[in-house]
Amino acid sequence: MSTGHSIRSGPATAANADQQSTLVIIDSNNSLTHLLGEFISRRELLYFLIWRDIKIRYKQTVLGALWAVLVPLLQTFLFTVIFGRFAKMQTDGNYNYTVFVLAGLIPWTLFSQALTLGSQSLINQQHLMTKVYFPRLYVPTAAVGGCLIDFLIGLLLYAAVLVYFHIPPTWAIAWLPALVVLTVFASLGIVYLMAALTVSYRDFKYVIPFAVQAGMYASPVVYAVNIVPAKYRLILGLNPMTGIIDGYRSAVLGKPWDVSLIVESVCVSIVFFLIGVVYFRMAEQRFADIA
Question: How many domains does the chain contain in total?
C-alpha cells in the first residue's frame, strides 16, 4: 500500500545478522521537505517516466510530433473564421486576430493536455503502482512534463507565425520563461487533485473532458479580457489561466500588463497546488487497493 513514505535502514534481526543484511522500513512522512527531497533524490526515475509518456503518446502514429503543429494551426484557423470573421470579435489592441488567438491557444493547449492526460495517469499506470514503491506524485508529474514537448513545438510554430506577420519581439519577451513555469505550476496543482479524485471516483473520467471544453471558453483564448465587465473580472481571475494567457499576450505582443490579474493567477495557482498535493498525499494510501 503506498503513502507518503520515508525509508530507514537498520540492522536485520539476530537470526540473520551474520549475513550483514539490512532491514528497510517504509513509513509515512507527509512533510513538504521530505516530498521535495524525494523528488530530487529520485529525479532520474521522473525523467524516465516523462520520456516513456512521450514515446507512448506518438507510438503507432503516422505524423508523430507533427500533430503538435497541426492541432493548434487547425484550431486557430477555425477560431479566426468563426470568431474573427463571423462574430467580429475584437482584440484589446491593434493586433491581428490570428496572432492574438494563437498567443492564448498555446498556453491553453499545454494546460488542457496536462489536465486530460494527467487526470488519467494513475489509472493508466495501475499495474505499476501495485508492484513497486516509488513516489506516486511522479506519475501525474510525468504526464505534465511530457506535454512540455508539444508546448515547445507550439512556441516554435508561434515564432514562425510572428515572422510571417512581421511582428518583432519586444523586451517583455524576457518574462516568457517565468510564464511557462507559472503555467506548469498551475497545471500540476489541478492535475494532482484530479488524478487522485479520478482513482477514487471514476465519474471524473467523464467530467474532465467536459470541464476542459467549458474551461476554454471561461479562459480568454478567443476573446480579450477587457470585453468582460470590470465587476466580473475578479471572478474570471479565479481561473488561473486567465491571468496566465493575458500575460503571454503581454510578453509576446507587447500589450500593457494587467499586474493584478497576474497576481491573482499566482495566488490561485498556489492555493490549487497546496490543495492538490495535500489531497493526493491523503488519498495515496488507497491507490494500490482501488486503482
Answer: 1
